[in-house]
Amino acid sequence: MNNVNNNYLNFLIELANQADEVATFFFHKQFKISQKIDATLVTEADLKIETEVRKLALNHYPQLSILGEEFGEVKNSSCKLIIDPIDSTYNFVRGLPFFATLLAIEEDNEIVAGIVSSPITKERWLASVNQGAFYNNQKLEVSKIKALSKATVFHGSLFGAEAKEIPNQMFKIIRKTFRQRGFGDYLSHMLVAMGKGEFAFDFGVKPWDIAPIKIIVEEAGGMLTDQFGVPTIYSGNMISSNGYLHEEILKVVP
Q1: Cβ distance 194 to 136 under 8 Å?
Q2: Superfamily in which the 2-131 domain is placed by CATH
Q3: 49-59 per-position pLDDT tens digit
Q4: What is the pTM of this model?
Q5: CB-CB neighbours of 8 under 10 Å
Q6: What CATH architecture applies to the domain 148-252?
Q7: Secondary structure E strands in 23-109
Q8: How far is Cα 14 from Cα 46, in angstroms, rounded to an integer?
């Protein structure tokens, strides 16, 4: 099983290398931008990255199922590649370097390998089942803070369209914390995995926003569930934590 997971991770690294090359090419250049039905942005770079990743993936594993943000799902097997070509597209459009490609392998409904790759900041987080989580080759471990009064929480937008699905109860939790920082998207949860804060949350998200984040946080010793405590990537929301605070958060949120 370990060799299989390592193979998956090596495969994801190759895909991430390709994605990074495309993203770096487009960054700070003029590119086409359009708006989806849900008012989110999609760029020429998003489409190119997912196209290239799918092509490379199918060359390696022609029977692999693929679920991607831009081109939907192709079902061929119980083993699935999940793609978010650019997480935090708005940052990418504004010339902010805090965006990443998110890739994961789901096998028999379990995420078994994942990678988050931020090419401009030259940061990469990765994990596979029972093999630990790593940041630029350094092993990750969540923090050991057990009190909300000493905790740092990371979040995205708290107002506007992006925040419309955040339950009001979440603000009760935030008020109890020591520090609050609005990094948003993948970065919030990677900071939890790195032990830089104690929990983060996102609502109104998709499976491709969650998949690699889940295994990276868990392999770093933390927890990631939806607001009801279900460890799924398909509920449309996620709360990641160092584990010590998870139960206390979930008691308030629903």
Answers
A1: no
A2: Fructose-1,6-Bisphosphatase, subunit A, domain 1 (3.30.540.10)
A3: 999 999 999 99
A4: 0.95
A5: 22
A6: 3-Layer(aba) Sandwich (3.40)
A7: 33-35, 41-43, 65-68, 72-74, 79-87, 100-107
A8: 18
